[in-house]
């Protein structure tokens, strides 16, 4: 499976990267966000929201699990870090099959609920505040998206 990498030296670069990525997304797309604590998962999502023309401030939905934002298409921002065994009642599939883009922080915790095709984005802490962003497309749609985006 092909991976693509991007090094971000400051939060603004992470936001710019995800803002540009938003131009390539369409309704029903799912982004699984993984990585180190404090590596910029929410910063990434803030940039994505800007790219989707969302005006509201985006913050982590850690205690609410899901936040919805309206822009040129909806953004469903999930943080499943605190989800326990009762996640089946939350209706994740309705979001994954919805008319917006879904971002799932700590996605591995609900792996069996995720669609098979998605864009896996992992953020890692680097030296001097840098972040390594690793993008792994899972499925033909996301492979094509990455080929075009990373040209």
Short description:
The chain has 151 residues and is an alpha/beta fold. Helices cover 25% and strands 27% of the residues.
Question: Which key terms come to mind for this protein?
Answer:
27% strand; seven-stranded mixed β-sheet; 25% helix; alpha/beta; 7 strands; 151 residues; globular
What do you see in this structure?
This protein is of the alpha/beta class and 151 residues long. The protein is 25% helix and 27% strand. The protein has a seven-stranded mixed sheet with strand order 1-7-6-2-5-4-3. Strand 3 and strand 4 (75-79) form a beta hairpin. Helix 1 crosses helix 2. The two termini are 17 Å apart.
Please render the helix and strand layout as text.
Blueprint: E1 4-8, H1 11-22, E2 30-35, H2 41-51, E3 66-69, E4 75-79, H3 92-96, E5 101-105, E6 118-125, E7 131-138, H4 140-149
Helix pairs in contact: 1-2
């Amino acid at each position: 499976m092909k991976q693509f990498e991007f090094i971000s030296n400051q939060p603004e670069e992470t936001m710019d990267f995800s803002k540009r990525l938003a131009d390539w997304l369409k309704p029903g797309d799912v982004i699984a966000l993984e990585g180190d604590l404090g590596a910029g998962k929410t910063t990434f999502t803030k940039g994505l929201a800007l790219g989707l023309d969302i005006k509201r401030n985006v913050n982590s939905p850690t205690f609410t699990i899901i936040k919805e934002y309206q822009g040129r298409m909806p953004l469903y921002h999930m943080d499943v870090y605190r989800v326990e065994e009762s996640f089946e009642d939350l209706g994740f599939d309705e979001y994954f099959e919805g008319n917006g883009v879904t971002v799932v922080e700590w996605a591995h915790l609900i792996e069996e609920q995720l669609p098979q095709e998605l864009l896996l984005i992992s953020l890692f802490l680097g030296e001097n505040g840098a972040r390594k962003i690793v993008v792994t497309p899972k499925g033909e749609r996301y492979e094509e998206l990455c080929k075009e985006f990373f040209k």
